[in-house]
Specification:
By secondary structure, the protein is an all-alpha fold. The chain has seven helices and two strands. The chain has a domain of about 100 residues: Cytochrome Bc1 Complex, Chain D, domain 2 (Orthogonal Bundle), CATH 1.10.760.10.
Length: about 160
């Protein structure tokens, strides 16, 4: 019985100390988030775009970002990369959805595709969204994509035949 109690207490002590150790600063595991950090992570951009932050960008600016951060996975002009093709039939019903996805999830790390390499700034996200809309023939290369315009872009969706 004493051995069982000793073993149980040893396990509890080890688990407790390991948990406490992993929470101490300077271990390189995570960081304490400020309220501002949490606010940036915990928002949702709906289809009407009311939650979009103010910003702007053009396809010309977005092309530079694309060349630096996206071409490795998606190929030149969104074609023939190892990941999803971006040129052709847009998969999103709203341009706002493209902005939201890019801002939340792109660019991915080339070494570890499961990890976001860095988060783009708001203006970089508008520029990259503008570039994707441009290569799909939805806007012109010099169109300034901003909060007002992105909410009014009509996306060309494929009409599926009704059975």
């Amino acid at each position: 019985m004493n051995k069982t109690i000793f073993l149980l207490l040893s396990v509890i002590l080890c688990l407790g100390s390991f948990s406490a150790y992993s929470q101490t600063p300077g271990q390189g595991i995570g960081k304490v988030l400020s309220q501002e950090d949490i606010g940036e992570l915990m928002y949702t951009v709906g289809p009407k775009g009311k939650e979009l932050p103010q910003g702007q960008g053009t396809a010309r600016e977005g092309e530079q970002i694309y060349t630096q951060s996206c071409i490795f996975c998606h190929g030149p002009e969104g074609l023939n990369g190892p990941q999803n093709t971006l040129k052709g039939s847009p998969r999103f019903p709203f341009a706002i959805s493209i902005w939201d996805y890019i801002h939340r999830a792109m660019p991915r790390s080339v070494a570890n595709v499961g990890v976001q390499e860095r988060q783009l700034s708001v203006d970089e996200t508008y520029s990259l969204t503008a570039y994707l809309l441009y290569i799909n023939g939805i806007i012109d290369q010099d169109t300034v994509l901003d909060t007002d315009l992105i909410m009014n872009i009509e996306m060309p969706m494929e009409k599926k035949p009704v059975n």
